[in-house]
Amino acid sequence: MAYFKSFSWFTAQIIVVIVISAFATILMAYMLKEIQHKIKFLPIIILIVLIYAVSKELYLPGLIFVLILGLFLGNLDEIKHLNWIKQFHPEILNREVHKFKDLITEFTFLIRSIFFLMFGFQIQTHELLNMNSMVLAFIIIFIIYVSRYYFLTLLKISVQPLFYFAPRGLISILLFLSIPTSNLLPVLNKALVTQIIIISCLMMMYGMMSYKPQIEIQS
Prior knowledge:
mainly alpha, 74% helix, 0% strand
């Protein structure tokens, strides 16, 4: 009975968030199309953060809202034939979305740079050289890349260089920090997470440096 109640509550949360996300996404699209002021993207970003923060305060899965908004804005070309989408003038909205993506890309790069700078300051030498967690870190890395190779071959996608692009960074740290101290396992410690992040980043760096794209010469 307790499991059924928990599942029902979880399902209700998902439905509520999807409904709220649908209305919020339409509102964002309307704002992108209608706001003519030079400052238009920053208020939208603030509104997104606000909706996410409110959903977290209400114990709702706020990341679903971010996911739905991203799916909508990233696939306008695929859904622009729908009648209700035409009311937003997809050609205008698509142009504004590209500007919004450029701003988000630069903003994301800034956040990642600051994060990894702070992460570098917090890394301790004994954490990198902790042999107790090093073996488990390599096992986890092995599982990550084997599963990545399997899915790339299953989908018939070129293994090079995507095989190496599986870094663990910002999200891994945030998820690790969000785990309550009472729920932490003894084997899951900061040294293990740090080693996984460093090894995966080194793998990505090797893939980027070793990959040489073939340039087609047109005759």
